[in-house]
Write a structure and sequence with these properties.
This protein has 326 residues and is mainly alpha-helical. It has 2 domains: 185 residues, Ferritin; 75 residues, no CATH class. Helix content is 50%, strand content 2%. It has a two-stranded parallel ribbon with strand order 1-2. α1 runs antiparallel to α4, α3 runs antiparallel to α9 and α9 packs antiparallel against α10. The chain is flat, with a radius of gyration of 26 Å. The two termini are 14 Å apart. Its EC number is 1.11.1.6.
Length: 326
């Protein structure tokens, strides 16, 4: 159950109208890294976690709901940046305010360019926020990543928060409005907070690497192929222990072509860099698969079922104690 509160989470403000920046800000309203994408991604991911991982369900639903509030903040800011435009477009006989806003041939040409780049924004919508990116491309569900495995989904979410954060960082370079910068700074900072939340949640799942259930073939997991000409660059991604556990190391292959020929297309590649055998990897896959399956089966009932019980006061429910007393 969603309950809308009319006050914004952050008091969005603008100093003056700015239709050009309003068009840019559409990127975070209906773009691939925007607030609607984030809200829908976490919302969809939450369903698979509802029974087996109620704590993660609560996390995903909480952040999804906050992202909807951020969508409202972005929409409110866009609307204020277009203050007066909608009314002036309605008054075809007297466009003095719009004329003043676009005074000067240079500003007028820029506005016409914006309208041509994204005609729906002003020519069709009248200046209200649209579910498009800054170029007028409609929002699409293909932006949403949900794979039904928390070790995969949480990593997608960490990446999503990273991308959203950098978009806000870029957007802040295109406005001089201190109020708008405050709003963008708040939204950017919440992306950082969500990043940490998802990273912390991922750490509570053990094991969480590699993502999913099946383990990698130890013949190939620790190989680094030098696939470019010129000076070879070495670092923790291709030498020493790197991110592996103690006793495991990268195996650097200087000449991949020679390696492929000598090992019959890597079919006969020996295990290097780790002591794990294919049999051990297979056994780990089997045990982890059973563990994940049992986690789900333990909370899945046969026959008729229902999503909620009323009232709910444990971790299975997003209801807060004060709400239960109403």
């Amino acid at each position: 159950m969603f309950h809308h509160v009319k006050e914004l989470e952050f008091n969005a403000r603008v100093s003056a109208p700015d239709p050009r920046f309003a068009s840019l800000l559409l990127e975070q309203f209906g773009g691939a890294n925007g607030e609607l994408k984030a809200a829908m991604q976490y919302f969809v991911q939450a369903f698979a976690a509802r029974k087996p991982f109620p704590d993660k369900y609560d996390l995903l639903m909480d952040i999804a709901t906050e992202e909807l509030s951020h969508l409202e903040i972005v929409g409110a800011t866009i609307t204020m940046l277009l203050d007066g435009v909608n009314g002036e477009l309605k008054n075809a006989a007297d466009n003095s305010m719009l004329f003043n806003l676009l005074s000067g041939s240079e500003k007028k040409e820029e506005m016409i360019h914006q309208a041509m780049t994204n005609p729906q924004f002003l020519a069709l919508s009248g200046g209200s926020p649209t579910l498009t990116n800054s170029q007028g491309v409609p929002w699409t569900a293909s932006y949403v990543n949900a794979n039904g495995d928390l070790t995969v989904d949480l990593r997608s979410d960490i990446a999503a928060e990273s991308r959203a954060k950098i978009v806000y960082e870029y957007l802040m370079q295109f406005t001089d409005d201190p109020y708008v910068k405050d709003t963008l700074g708040f939204l950017m900072t919440r992306e950082v907070a969500h990043f940490k939340m998802f990273a912390s949640a991922l750490e509570t799942i053990e094991p969480n690497f590699p993502p999913g259930v099946l383990q990698g073939d130890p013949r190939y997991t620790h190989i680094y192929m030098n696939m470019s000409n010129g000076a070879s660059v070495r670092g923790p991604w291709n030498q020493g222990q790197g991110a592996w556990e103690a006793g495991e190391n990268w195996e650097y292959v200087e000449n991949p072509y020679q390696q492929v020929v000598e090992t019959n297309g890597l079919v006969d590649q020996p295990i290097k860099g780790t002591t794990r055998t294919p049999q051990q990897a297979e056994e780990m896959s089997r045990k982890l698969g059973m563990q994940r399956s049992q986690e789900i089966e333990a909370v899945t009932k046969s026959g008729s079922t229902q999503w909620s019980t009323y009232p709910q006061g444990n971790v299975d429910s997003p209801m807060k104690p004060q709400e239960k007393q109403l």
